[in-house]
Amino acid sequence: AALPLDEYTCLDTGEVEAALARLDAQQGNACNLLAASRALPPAMARPRWSLRDYAVTRHLHAGYASDVVEARCRASGARCALKVYSLPDMPRLSRLHLLREIKLHTSLVGCEGVVALHAAFLEQGVVELSMGAGAALRAAGYNHVVLVQ
């Protein structure tokens, strides 16, 4: 089960935190999946998503709103890209655009020239991913991560 994406069109960090707490109380382990596409390889499916499930191999891009890294899924061995957003650092309108990006990309499975989105999830807390040679990606607060092929 995924978080009810349509209920969070503004994607306010406080609202998402409250939703995760409610789900955690109901299920004992909050579902942090925002969306999953038909392109998701079965070997990558899991009940709980985390940046720690990926071995980061290199940093590809640092933008004003996100970082993009190349990684390998520890469960499936699949090579993928992780696009990591720090929601607290994003203006409300940018969070809305991000939500639209997720909805759009999950519906564009199999479109030529479009990178397939596998899943999008929220993760709470500070996460640091090692990339070898002392490099690290540090993502604080709530992080929105888009996994792409």
UniProtKB/TrEMBL annotation:
Membrane-spanning ranges: none
Molecular function GO terms recorded: ATP binding; protein serine/threonine kinase activity
UniProt keyword terms in alphabetical order: ATP-binding, Kinase, Nucleotide-binding, Serine/threonine-protein kinase, Transferase
Keyword ATP-binding in record: yes
Signal peptide: none
InterPro entries according to UniProt: Aur-like, Kinase-like_dom_sf
Keyword ATP-binding: yes
Name by which UniProt lists this protein: Non-specific serine/threonine protein kinase
Species, as recorded: Chlamydomonas leiostraca
